[in-house]
Amino acid sequence: MLETAESRGSKPQGRPESPEQPEQVTGVSPPCVGAGAGARRLARVAAASCALLAGGGLAGWIFGIETLKSFVAGQAVMKPNSAIALMALSASLLLMLSGVQRPALLRLARLGAGVGLGTGLVTLAEYVLDAGPSIDQLLFRDDSASPGLPPGRMSPNTALALVVAGLGQLLLAGKRARTVRLGQVCALIALMLGLLRVYGFVYRVPQLGQFDDYTRMALPTALALVLLGAAMFLARQDVGLAALLMNPGTTGLLGRWMAATALGVPPVLGWLRLMGQDAGWYETRMGSALVACAHVVVLTVVSFTVLSVGRRAEIAHDRVQHRIREYTWLQRFMDHTPAAIFIKDCAGRYLAVNAGFERLTGTRRADILGRQIEDVLPRTSAGPLRAAEAEVQYTGRSLERQDTLHLPDGPHHFLTTLFPLTDTSGAPYAVCGISTDATERVLAQQDSERARQRFHALLECAPDATLITDGRGSVLMANAQAEALFGRPRSRLVGSSVHDLAPARTRRRQSALLRAYLTRPETRPMSADVDLTACDSQGREFPVEVSLGPLETEDGLLVFLAVRDISDRKRAEAEVAARYRQQHHIAYTLQRSLMGSPPVLEELPTARRYLASVQDAGVGGDWYDFIPLGPGRTGIVIGDVMGRGLEAAAVMGQLRAAAHALAQAGLPPDRLISALDAFVCDLSEQMVTCCYLIIDHNTAEMTACSAGHPPLLLAAPDRPAHPLDLPTGVPLGIGGFPHECTSRPLPAGAILALYTDGLIERPRADIEDQINRLADALNAALHTYGASSTALEPAADHLLAELLPDDDSHDDDVTLLLIRVPPAARVQTELPSHPRAVPDGRRFLTTTITAWRVPADLVDTARLLTSELLTNAVVHAGGTLTLSVERSATELTVEVTDQGSARPRPRQADATDESGRGLTLIGALAHRWGTRPHDQGKTVWCTLRLTPSCGGDR
Q: Is 754's pLDDT higher than 90?
């Protein structure tokens, strides 16, 4: 429903209504509270009940049920046209009460009201003209009409009620309160027409529901009209007559009681009087009925009259209270404002001041009000302020000015805002001023300006090209030396990116260095001259040395860059480098020896490629390693030390040895990477990318941790090659950032691709596009050569040919590893910690490996080893035992997991000892054996070598 401006539930206390503004509907009413919410619910129930009564009458015609048509035998029946019109009006009212503002639903609501209005108008026209379109028999044939009356036609008072109800609903949807009031009057008329018929039935006066000799209004129709009129009247409880009843004030409460009295008391009294008349105590029934109806009308009119008067009294009282509170609020607000506030009339007299103005002038408020400015402030300051106030009063515009007042504690700077106060006609009647003590801010601005001038002078005197950038690398300031060095005017330098001052081929790396510097938790000054290059406006490249320093400001961290052209130094270094080419060869040999030859694991097919840089002597920092970690587990590490040369090779050798040792010690990937990070942070300005992963054939999953390394590629049997979604982390050497460890399933037959950035980095090429290109090349290679172990070598050559078409152009080391995850057979069983677990475990082992077609000699050896492992677990540990048997392409592994924490240790048994030889026997017969602790205990394992002909199909 639409609502007027005076609705929205209860008004805030102290907010008077403006009598000058007409009441208008301003939108859709929100959910009401209190009496308003109850009235809205009652209106919906009444409208739905009206629709139910009308639907019942129509159902009576459809199914021939006389009770639904008239309720009481021998009474007039509800006509089909009446039922349809009442249903349309009820549906229209329910749509209006729903509050939905969709245009289609609004049109549908108006259509329903139009149906009711049109039906009533056509019927009245038929009565007046004694002719018409004969709509009375359109739906059903009615033979119940009295002789001489049109069959099937509703009564005239029913038609009139439908016309009034339809017109009232259309008026209720209006936007002005006056229109809504007319709609509510129509609702009351429709309600009264229905009540007349109800009163006639109750008082047994049929003339109240009948015009002349025409058809009488049916009792269901009368009840439906009463419900419809009540629902229409309550539908707009925020406007007009209904607002008098439903407002939350005193008048609303009084009105509801009076309305209840007016609608309830007279009918009851009239009924009691008729009972007395029936007993022979009074006169005719007609007189009593008319008296009762007159009581209702009179009491209703009197009630609304009293409500109107009471409401006006409440509004006037609220307006006065609001004015008083407004003044109190304003004075409190002014007194709690730290600024000095004053209001002056057009003659320059003070009308109001706050406590801040009293403190400023040192004068009490009572001594200020009514006086001129010359009586309060010194005359030297009063004159300019008086002139400014006159200007504001004359122009009608606000004015801001800064004044200096000499107070007892010294001069103070005040920022004063003057603005006019106007009446309803727009004429100024007073001037308001707000003065804020800005002494500290003015002095701070002056100090800041002097400091800025000194800083600019120092910047211009710096011997090197100096740039100041923000956290994103945008140049904020540049000195004259920067203009000369880069061949660009200062206007082009300021606002550009510092990364654009580097050649395109080194831009990405140098940008990474700056980002790495900014991401340090405690950024410190540093210098860098390793492979840093700049270019001027003509495209000439020259080596530079860059010194960086942090500048903490209010706007965040800025970076101070001092750039020096070191072309002369580089030429001298080149001459020195020419004398030591032989040492470069030695460094290359050293680098190859440091990298070593990672072992070839028969159970893990791989293809390995390492290409040294063709732009240097081949000394670089790429390395990789394969570390056996026990049965079914292999550690793989790949890394890249940023930069080239002997230093990078030396760092690479140290990292490879450290990573190998840490991996064999059983560290998980995240702890190993963190240990390497701490190691690199101790080195001088080194940055390394690295990735360490563990492939576990037992669980068919991979656990990996990356420190800024390019993403791994995985080509699974059911999915093409794609980058693995692993947390990248920051490179080693930055420090202070945690490295996350992630596990991913690794299906058998999957192909893993590990590589360094030398394979994908190209000048002016997007790194993401290069990674996608590598994935596409891997897919093409697997499609051409297949995904078997023998296809890895040609696939690796294919990738290098695609990504490095010109072998003489790559200026960085290139490392590529292709790894195929072979399928592994593994079964396990749980055994109790009891001596019978040893024979049960032997039987389980024998059945399993016999099915795998393991040779008989190995079966006997495996049975013996399993007996020793189970015996040790039963004797020295407790809890449930787990026996696991796994076969790979090259090994047969037996594991026994128990809940004991003590690790087994071999000992030398004497000739007379009955025990102590188990581990010695295992060490002599097994290819390898070891212990792996875990949270619930430990696992002791041993392996036996298998020949290629062992076993069946895998």
A: yes
